[in-house]
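**Archive record**
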Amino acid sequence: MSADAGTLIAQANTHDYTILSLHSLSLNHFRNYETARMEATPAPVVLTGHNGAGKTNILEAISLLTPGRGLRRAKLSEINNCHSHANWVIAASVHGMQGEVKIGTGRDPEPGDNPDKRIVRIDGKPVRGQAGLARHFAIIWLTPQMEQLFQESASAGRKFLDRLVFSFDPDHASRVNEYDYAMRERNRLLAGNADGAWLDALEQTMAETGAAIAQARRHTVEHINHAILSSPLSFPKAHMRVSGTVEDLLEKGMAAVAAEEAFKGVLKDARRMDAGAGRTLSGIHRSEMHMIHVEKQMAAQFCSTGEQKALLLSIVLAQARAGAQWHGVVPVLLLDEVVSHLDATRRLELFEEICQIGAQTWMTGTDPGLFAGLEGKAQYFHVDGGRVISD
């Protein structure tokens, strides 16, 4: 590690917030890696190599250290090494929200009825479910596929927003899962001979978790918007807003408890309509994220591809800065092929912002020359056919 990188890390450790980082990563039977191990410092990480070498696979592995299906949203069976019959396993040592911890996760060798079940271990001890991961580690990622976010359905924007919330609120994932389970059970009951008392209980759960989810989304958006407006970067400034059954009530000034009761009433009144539709027509599962280009006062879906990418990048950077200011935690950033379409000025601005925030940022690219400006401030690895070589 260079002297400059060491100075950067020492400065980061003096902040009054926690900067999350990954120290070591081991892969077994994961994608194109039979086995691989790498060690890193809290400084930015640059992964270079030709297309198909396995750079994004490393980012995907890191993303699986948090709840969910990772940055590719792949089925667990799709992640196995194609030349091996063994199930994939990831082991990592991280500096997390609760200090140093070892995280292990992989495809369950005895999945039972669920072939896409994965196991999680924290410091060697089995953990039920994945929600516990959110109490230790937080990651935000940006991939080329996400540049289509504005052209996709509302669910894509909603998932993007919820990932931003996860890094602020570790309990958000549990609430979303609890809401989804209650909604599925309600739909099932409505399709048969529904029991009124059981429906009341399920709708109470949906109302309580739904109000908490809506509040968390609104608070996250408010803090990110504030961080974007105060940013000195020349990136286009985005303004985010979330709308929906519960969010709209909160935006009008209704108290959270009152919004919860109102949502419960909406669900009860809609039972017959929802039964006919075979699904729940109102709720936080149908909320929408809206984004505008502030300078142009234009909806993001009508902006150019380059502007859309810059808007997303400005949100991710603002999320990291807002995390430090509001929650006292700077998440790890995963930026896949992020610099390839940025001009030289914006690349340097990006690198400067990353170093100022202090976030451990993992970036990939085919051309090492695109990362000029990070010399002495980052650690470099070359990826080639399932091998990771420190530069």
Summary: The chain has two domains: 1-138+331-391, 147-327.
